[in-house]
Sequence to fold (409 residues):
Amino acid sequence: MTLEKQNETSAGQGVNVTESILDQPLWETIAQKLKQANLTNNKGSSFSNPYFAGMGIGIALFLAFFLVGRGFGDSGAMTRIFAYLMSKFTPEHTDTLYYFKRYLSTSGHPLYHWVVFVLIGSAIGGLVSGLKGKRMKMEFIRGPNVSRKRRIITSLIGGILVAFGARMAGGCVTGLAITSGSLLSVAGWLFFFVVISAGMLTAYIIKKEWL
Amino acid sequence: MLAPLYEFGNLSETGMIIVALMVGFIFGYIVENVGFANAKNFTATFYGNDWRVHKVIFSTVITAMILLYFSFYLGFLDISMIYVPQLKLKPIIIGGAVLGAGLVIGGYCPGTSVVASMTRKMDAWVYILGYFIGVWIYAEFYSSFSFLIISKNLGKITFSELLDLPYGYLAFIVIIFAIITFYFLSKVEGKIYKTKLP
Fold:
């Protein structure tokens, strides 16, 4: 509507100025629209009750078990996506990587897998919740004493470490601790215990990052 | 035995995709709504200020266990068809330690980072890039790491096999344990590091 008004006034002044939405990059248009729709202003303290949230995820997990016999597995989904992208961009080199063979050499498309669809669904779900809760602000989440540059470095390192740990142990928290934990698997619970202990120790060491 | 429907051929491929998208939608929606997609909230757990992560994970596990137990007890779920991971001590302990450190440094889990990146959090985008780099390094040097991964495979054991107790009793024990933990956590909240995050 704002753009139409601009066209009206400039046409009234005898100057033919046509502006179209495509004059600016798409992400800026999205950012403007989100700001106009007042979707970026929530200060973030109106979150839902964690107990009810847990019940909701538990019900969803049970539905997954009941209907398909599988649980969550987001780290595996991200690995598949990455393996697929690599095989598209550097096929000859990807052939030499033994670790990706389990994802790429099976019959059928590597992205046609339960975990990938769950990941896509969770992305959509997160988007809807963010829109509804007005938490769409583009920002860096960081501790009070941390600069943006430092946060970039820590996110990067964190991502690398988690990828490593997840591939080694065979899953991330949602896959191992929650899914397999609810089946009372020893591997899942041991993993959860180790993750929490290591996390608390690391948190103590890098206090400055978050407190 | 009626379930899992897909495994017994009672759910089509399209049905599987639809179920996956729906389950993922619920998961992503709740994750964002409870605040996990925010790295500060996520790491607040490890500082004892906000036990959100523990509460959600335990509640999830309890709910799923109760539902699983009842459907198993009533006879319409074949629990042996569900994947249980293998217990290999070395990779789980080392991988878990690395993952725990990365969780606090990065502030995200891979699933929550996808949800956060959808709400335009830039550090989540960087995190996903780091995740891809990590997977790439892992694949490139996979053969050199094999000494970390090769470990005695103790099998797909669950606690009910280990302790020789039926699933129902153990579920009950876990529920009691979780309730005690919730109570204890609410007492300790905010007192360990003497700060209360907003």
